[in-house]
Amino acid sequence: MSITERLAINTAIFDGHDLKTSLKTISKLGVQYVEFAFNQGYVGQLDSDMFSKNHAQYLLTLLEKESLQSNALGCTMNLAAPNAIAEFKMRIDFANHLGVRFLNTCTGPIADRQVIVDNLKILAPYAEDLGCVICIENGGDLNFNAFATAHDGIRILQEVGHPALALNFDPGNSVSLVPNLSPSEEAKIAMPFCRHFHVKDVQVHDDKFTFPALGDGIVNFTPIIESLAMRKMPFSIEKPLRMYRRKDSFPIRGRSPESIQIIADTLEQSVSFIKNIENQ
Known about the structure:
Protein name: Sugar phosphate isomerase/epimerase
Number of domains: 1
Strand content: 15-25%
GO molecular function: isomerase activity
Organism: Vibrio qingdaonensis
Order of helices and strands: EHEHEHEHEHEHHEEEHEEEH
Keywords: Isomerase
Shape: globular
Largest sheet: 8 strands, parallel, barrel
Pfam family, one: AP_endonuc_2
CATH class: Alpha Beta
């Protein structure tokens, strides 16, 4: 199977645009999969209606119209929040309604690490019962620094000790949260423990981190894409184009969405970059 046949587009890049337009744009790229993004603080206001069975059915109707599929859900939230277990179970139920297997989520602050581990010990069996896998993701800012390095994530997996918990690694997040480490080396360490993977390039400015098309940033994606090509795991281009991170890593969401043309051009360049590495 070609690596691009496992590629999805995460809808965070379309933040501010309607889903019909977003999915039509993805379909024109020739990409088969969509990762819907429901990440707290990154894609606008979320409420319980967004995770209802009716909304899942609506999304499935939109996917069918564009001949697209989904096998992953972006659902980052603070896994140590007082209501985290109930809130994340709602997301697992939603994934089940969508027929989605992988739930990708960053974790929470390192001060609450033990609470996160304890909550995951409850959530992982619940996910397994519904045929899902929770894939914890390395954070890109200090709100989610309980899992900053690849070894941090591996240790959480070992402490929880459940097959329905795995990693979803994002080398682009390493750039802002652990700038002293090599994103490609971190990806190499994490990949054997991953069931899903995110690709996001980063440009570093004097006062912020931004997210260009793949190949236009500082992450060496050639060995990462080559490793993904040898594995069967799904992966997605996860690029919150409307957002940037300050020098201290905290995310800032822009007031206005990017234009569909800029989004489409960025995605087209990124998909071509992946194909070129695969065909070398």
